[in-house]
Amino acid sequence: MALRARALYDFRSENPGEISLREHEVLSLCSEQDIEGWLEGVNSRGDRGLFPASYVQVIRAPAAEPPPPARYANVPVGGFEPLPPPAAFKPAAQQPPPEPFQPPPAGYPFPPYGGSYQPSQGSDDDWDDDWDDSSTVADEPGALGSSYPDCEAAGGGASGRYRLSTRSEPSLGPRGAGHPPGHPHPPGGGGAAKSSATVSRNLNRFSTFVKSGGEAFVLGEASGFVKDGDKLCVVLGPRGPEWQENPYPFQCSIEDPTKQTKFKGMKSYIAYKLVPSHTGQQVHRRYKHFDWLYGRLAEKFPVISVPHLPEKQATGRFEEDFISKRRKGLAWWMDHMCSHPVLAQCDAFQHFLTCPSTDEKAWKQGKRKAEKDEMVGANFFLTISVPTGPGASLDLQEVESQVDGFKAFTKKMDESALQLNHTANEFARKQVTGFKKEYQKVGHSFKCLSQAFELDQQAFSAGLNQAIAFTAEAYDAIGDLFADQPRQDLDPVMDLLALYQGHLANFPDIIHVQKGALTKVKESKRHVEEGKMELQKAEGIQERCNIISFATLAEINHFHKIRVRDFKSQMQHFLQQQILFFQKVTQKLEEALHKYDSV
After folding, report:
1. What predicted TM-score, i.e. pTM, was given to this entire model?
2. Which of 84, 338, 354, 474 is the most buried (most CB within 10 A)?
3. CA torsion angle for 67, 69, 73, 76 (degrees, to 10)?
4. CATH class of 4-59
5. Known binder of ligand: residue 526?
6. What residues does each domain of the chain span?
7. Which CATH class for the 232-385 domain?
8. Which of 1-15, 94-108, 455-469, 509-523 has the lowest mean pLDDT?
9. Does 288 appear as a known binding residue?
10. What is the CATH number of domain 396-596?
11. Is 239 assigned to a binding site?
């Protein structure tokens, strides 16, 4: 006989090829084999199409059984066998209890966090086979199940390593013993109703909150080893949560971009000389090295704004203007990296700055280590240490208000930055072409006048002719000053705006992670009020949300601090250059004026 299944939940089709389901509806299956979590079948209305496998229970008996009572609508028919792993996503009210978290297998189709980032393709930034390494996955011991935030020294005598876990042990009540984590308890028995409710997962499994590991962390599914050196500390400063300052601050200059070749001149590239102040040892890096580092950092730090690199360019890579502009962009990028208390101390960044350019083996080892870093995704949040004790907890309502205010600020700043960038670019274009041309037209006109006056051979008019000719030359020179001036004042402003537009593009994702965590807290509180969840479990969710909130506010405060520093410095530089420019113009005009004193 034909395979049949009963719908456990309502499902509304949203895409072509899907069919809608009604709870308790009996369907005919075309096959019991699901395709990436979807089954094909025919509903009671005769529509044929796809629907989520986790929304139905296959009927093994020869005949359909009557629908279960509404009270136990979430209990699978035929006993308490675990449901298949969820492959589609339900509204919060219909979400079945999640299966125990398992790391995604190799080749899992989710794009890495920060999916908009693309590594270099083509041009001189291609990866070389002798530089790259295919090994990117570390084989480490499995996760341990200690309760967060307690730390236990890891076995094997590894000093300075701790195993942290946000997984909670299943409640072993009178009728709950032996049930796997996440499995619903049978109705009845002391406190079984409270432990049956879980916080739902996001419908969009490709959202930043999910891809970054924020959801898994908040729901208590993260566990791993944390070394002392991996800990990221948030402290309470005068402006609220702040990243703990780097005890050994440093800077790094980027100088002397030079064209180099390999493969007997068949391949050319530009190498930049980096000189970190804390080592004093110069190293050379290509743009592809910067690009690799950016990719690692963007994946590792979901609540930190990693500055964007200057844009790639397929043609004209060896032109002097492009090389100079890229070097300035990389210098701004490097300044922001060194100024960030977390990014500056990151192992991958330190390897990038200190590994000798000629030691290919050491570079590959450091690169491989960075790519095998386990403290990414949900485990990254285990590395964040936040203030504890009286007065250290955050008011989540106040946090939400602050984050909303910052969201409005970034939106307005982004609009203003775009407007200023457009205005500055247009003004620079006019100076380089229009203003220069107009001043030189004026100069040419004065020159024509002096040439006409030279037809008069009277001796007393010679001084006037020379003064007018000098005035013509002065206006020619002023035109050249206008054409050269944007390099001195407007271009640096636009370089800074480009860097901050990258930061502003990062913050929607950072805010989304915090908002996602806050939503889970609100949902858990509602379950507690309804008597569906134990208070201890809800408090664990709030505690983990607190960690994400501390980190988010620390990053916001760092952004404001560095923004004030940068724009103060840049506006001072802009006005100083404007004053110098007009002083040069005034000097030219005064020199021309003095020529008439002797006429």
Report:
1. 0.69
2. 474
3. -60
4. mainly beta
5. no
6. 4-59, 232-385, 396-596
7. alpha beta
8. 94-108
9. yes
10. 1.20.1270.60
11. no
